[in-house]
Amino acid sequence: MSSLSDLLRTVRADRHVTEIQLAEALGISVNDYTGIEEGIKPLSIELFDRIAEVLKVDPSNVLGMYLQSERDRRKQTA
What we know:
This protein has 78 residues and is mainly alpha-helical.
């Protein structure tokens, strides 16, 4: 995993939720949500928390997975 946006995409897909469904549940445009997953649009803490809520995941677990993947990546490149 190379970024938080990649992790969000993976979690969303694992839950069988489309970008359209998630964007609608969040009350944002599909283009805005796609931009977040592509790393083009910024992701606020508030929106991250709402995404986790809609996907029914603990936001601290998602951040923990992200941080672990970053640590692993750094070890591989060191």
